[in-house]
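check these C-alpha cells.
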Amino acid sequence: MGDCRTVSDLIKPAVAFVNADPADAGLDPALPSLLEESFEEQVKQGLTKGMQIFVARANNVVTDLALGTYTQSPSPITQETRFFIGSASKPIAATAVHILVDRGLVTYTDPVARLIPGFEQNGKAAITIAQLLTHTAGIPDPGYVQIPAATYLDREAAIKALCEMTPDYAPGTQTMYHGISGWFLLQEIVDRLDGRGFERFCIEEIFEPLGMTRTTWGLPAELEEETTAYSGSDEETDSEISFWRMRLSRDQVIAAANAHSSAGDLARFYLMWRNAGAAPNQRLIGPAVARNAVRPHVPWGPGVAQAFGYGFWVGSDPRLMSSRGSLGSPRILGHPGHWCSTAWFDPDTDVIFVALSNVGPGQEESDRRFCIMSDLVHRSVTQ
C-alpha cells in the first residue's frame, strides 16, 4: 500500500516550553550572567531602566530574566510586567493574515482594492496583500507627511486617507518601510473578512491558543499599573513620540505597532513559528503556509543583505548592527520594535531570543545594544 500520511502527519508534534540548564541545551552556562552584565552596562549609560530577557533553545528555556525597575516608579520589573513592543507587533498582525490565507479566505496575490473598494484610486489598483506584508506597496509613511499619525486614531478617516493617497513610487518597484499604512490596511482586511473583528480574531485565534496571557492590542486603562511606561528618545519627532504616548493611541487597536506584551508571551509566539505554525494543542497555520511566510520574498534594498518575509525581517549581515545580531544565519527571522524591543528565532541554531526595554535610546544606539545582546546569544551556542 502507498504512504497515506498527510503533510501534517510528517511534522513533529508541537512542544511547550520547559526549563533547562544552558549547558544541557548546548549553550554556554555563562549566558545568563553575560546578558545581565550587558543590561547593567545599559543602565549605567542611561539606555534603559528595566528589561525582560528570554532565551530558549528548541523548547528549553535557559534564560528568563526580569531586571531593573519600571520607568514611572521604583517598582521592580517581573516576568509578568507588560511592555510596549512597537513594531515587534507586526509579525503578530501578519499571522492573522496567514491564518486567513491558510483557510482559503484570501490569497497573498489578491488586490487590496478587491477587499477595500475605493483603494484603487490614484494608481493603487494593483497593490497586493503581499506588497503590504513586504513594504513594497509604494505607500510608505516616513514622518507621516501624507497621512499624519493621529489620523489612524479614526478608522473611517484613515481608510479614506489611504484610499485617496497617491503612491510615492510604482508599487512593487522599491522597498520602503511602511510604518503604519500597510498594516492598517491588513488590519482592515482581517476585520472585513472575519465577523469577529481584528482584535477578537487575534485573541481567539492567536493569543489564547498560544497562552499569550500578557498580550493586548493597545492597553486597557485598567492595565496601566501592570505596564512599565515607554520612554522614547529625543531623536524621535514630536509626532512620533507624542502619538505612542497618547492615551488615545493606547485606547485603539493599531496592528502596526501598539501591542503590549511580555518576553515570555513573545517567545511563545516564536515557538509557534519554530513549530511551523503549531501550538502545543492545536495548529494555527498549515506548515506549507507557515514555511512560505518566513522565507525571504523581497530584498531589503540595494547593498543591504537582509530581506523581508511576509511580516518578518529575515537574515542578518555581519556588516550591520542589526537588532538580530551580526552572527545570525541567513534564515533568522524576527522583528524589532520602536527602539525598545527585539524578538527572533534562528532555525539554524534552534534558538529563540526576546529582549524588551522600557527606554528607547534612538535608532542607532538601540540597534547597537540589541546587536550586542543578540550576538552574546549567538556566540553561546556550543553544540
